[in-house]
User: Which sequence fits this backbone?
């Protein structure tokens, strides 16, 4: 969560599953890959995101350091919960030996929320490691 000065306001990740204001909730880290669909989900209630937050940057990473090319059927996607439509999808397994991806940015523009797909590969085990790759997109 970033303000207008590209300063991080909050971060939601496996060690903090909920934003301080409650507008974003991460369902938790799936370390086994078990499941037949979306193994980890981040739910965002855009109507509750504080006014000082102008952008949200979504990333996915492998905490263990395993590259996504070695993970079968690794993908990430953004879904509009209002109509269950897929807005963006990335095949992580097909993009080489990286441990992370800066997926997309959701940002305020003229009092509306917009989405910009990014799809930039990166390396890092936590969002702290990825901040140099994330911040330019804030």
Assistant:
């Amino acid at each position: 969560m970033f303000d207008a000065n590209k300063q991080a306001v909050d971060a939601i990740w496996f060690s903090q599953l909920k934003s301080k204001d409650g507008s974003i909730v991460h369902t938790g880290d799936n370390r086994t890959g078990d499941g037949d669909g979306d193994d980890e989900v981040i739910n965002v209630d855009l109507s509750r995101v504080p006014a000082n937050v102008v952008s949200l940057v979504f990333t996915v990473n492998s905490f263990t350091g395993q590259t996504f090319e070695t993970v079968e059927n690794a993908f990430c996607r953004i879904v509009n919960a209002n109509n269950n439509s897929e807005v963006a999808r990335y095949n992580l397994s097909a993009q080489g030996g990286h441990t992370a991806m800066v997926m997309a940015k959701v940002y305020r523009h003229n009092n509306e929320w917009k989405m910009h797909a990014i799809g930039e590969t990166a390396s890092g085990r936590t969002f702290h490691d990825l901040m140099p790759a994330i911040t330019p997109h804030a």
Q: What stands out?
A: The domain at 24-137 is CATH 2.60.60.30 (Lipoxygenase-1). The beta strands are 24-26, 42-44, 55-61, 75-80, 85-91, 100-109, 112-122.
